[in-house]
Amino acid sequence: MSTATEQLLKDHKMIRKILESFDVDNPRFPEILKTLQRVVVGHAWFEDEFFMPAVKTRPLIFKPFWSEVSTEHEHIGGLLALLRKTGLKEKKTLQARAITLRSLLETHFTKEEDVLFPLAEQVIGRESLVKLAATMERRKEEVRDHLPR
Ligand SMILES: [Fe+2]
Ligand SMILES: [Fe+2]
Fold first, then answer.
1. Does the global pTM surpass 0.85?
2. Per residue in 6-25, pLDDT tens?
3. Boundaries of domain holding 51
4. Measured in angstroms, how far is the CA atom of residue 74 from the centroid of ligand 1?
């Protein structure tokens, strides 16, 4: 049985894989961007909906992180929406926004992977995180209502 953090790490891996072909010069750029947006927004929804409430039960330890993480989710979601609205002809703008997105995602993932997730594994414990993963699995269909078109 895997834990919620292990599930979320799998998403990070998938997102990094998509980022490998996330290049403005790629002829499939519009589809890749659309996929990236759905996967990233879906992933952030799982973290906000399931993982955050679990860490919020331990405010003394996690309070410094959760507002930062949620704010970053908003920034990343906003930038993805902006990229979707940017015309293909505006190549310089697209490129600049794509670079910003890449670095936002990398900083965000590093924070979660190096600090937040290991801390949660320590404080919340494996057993609770396995239960949380099961809840996420059971309610995974709900993510659809929160995805951009
Ligand atoms: Fe996140
Ligand atoms: Fe994440």
1. yes
2. 999 999 999 999 999 999 99
3. 4-146
4. 10
